[in-house]
Amino acid sequence: MTLGLFDTFPNAAPHREALAPGAVVLRGFVNESEENDLRAIESVVAEAPFRRMVTPGGFRMSVAMTNCGQAGWVTDLTGYRYSPTDPETDRPWPRIPALLADLAVRAAAVAGFPGYAPDSCLINCYEPGTRLSLHQDRNERDFSAPIVSVSLGLPATFLFGGATRSDRPRRVPLDHGDVVVWGGPSRLAFHGVLPLDDGHHRLLGRRRVNLTFRRAL
Ligand SMILES: O=C(O)CCC(=O)C(=O)O
Ligand SMILES: [Fe+2]
């Protein structure tokens, strides 16, 4: 009898890659429910459409963003912050769809952060050529909860650095369905996304959509 690679490891858990202490990539974590996940995102975007916000320095971001949850991350000329309402409509952000919240809670638990209770989800939409420069997620009140980041659509190269901007970041290829969780000693790690390559994704077309769940309040 011959054994192929997969026969040898019949019960292999979804593939996980350690990035740094407290940081892990869960490969292919989003699977059978993906179509429903996408529908849940569409319902958020119907209420709170993607928009390109302006940085405090006066630059329009290339990545289009929206939010769901009790608070949404926003930027304008006055600074970065979490807002309970959508500045475009002055209405509360849509709720985090239960399906998506559940995905984030499960990913956090698998990554070693049980009891995760995100209250905010930033949704980023990248088109070919758009990038997100190195930054820390530090507008949240409490850094004890991790960031859970879900990649959908076109592949991207994620940059994952250290505690200072000058730490040389690792280049992490991310594909549709991969989830990155960073918390604990990595919670304030610098990270970013290289300019997106052109391509076509079977579900999302010429786009990458990323969800970052946070405990903001
Ligand atoms: O798109 C990504 O993979 C990362 C997004 C991110 O870091 C952010 O929105 O703060
Ligand atoms: Fe970030």
What does this structure look like?
Keywords: Dioxygenase, Iron, Metal-binding, Oxidoreductase. It is an enzyme of class 1 (oxidoreductase). InterPro entries: Alkb, AlkB-like, AlkB-like_sf, Oxoglu/Fe-dep_dioxygenase_dom. The protein is α+β, with helices and mostly antiparallel strands. It has one domain (14-214): Jelly Rolls (Sandwich). The protein is built from 3 helices and 15 strands. The strands form 4 sheets. Strands 1-2-13-10-15-8-3 form a 7-stranded antiparallel sheet, with helices on one face. Strands 9-14-11-12 form a 4-stranded antiparallel sheet, with no helix packed on it. The longest helix has 14 residues, at 34-47. Mean pLDDT is 93; it is low at 1-12. Fe (ii) ion binds next to loops. Residues 122, 124, 132, 137, 149, 151, 158, 191, 193, 210, 212 line the site of 2-oxoglutaric acid (AKG).
